[in-house]
Amino acid sequence: MSPSRDNPSSNCRFPKSERLCSRPLIDHLYAHGHKLMAFPYSIHWIPVDSSGIPCKVLISTSKRKFHHAVDRNRVKRLTRECYRRHKDQLFAILNASGISILLSINYIHNEIMDSAQLDHKFDKLIPQLEKSIQEHLHS
To answer: Is residue 4's pLDDT more than 60?
Structure first.
């Protein structure tokens, strides 16, 4: 049975192996990666050599916009949850394209949106990311 974002008991995990933690890779991503805006997110991505994992993800928010750590942590938690629900869709796109990517998801809005709104935004974000990946592959 494949994981479904409608089924909360499905195995949509976000293990350490899928997190982007390497400072040199993060610097390379921001220096040479592709950028797209999908409000309330700013997305940076770059193709990398396949490491067996289709996507390594970094989730962040600005200290300038959210001065309290509690608020930053909440935004990151909500974003992680949305990513987990949509990652099977993203992985399918990446596996069909045959590439692996580094992905940075930055929350840029200055107010915290609720989970349903963020989920709706992620529904729009994934096709934009797919279009950007396809444009890169065909250029």
So the answer is: no
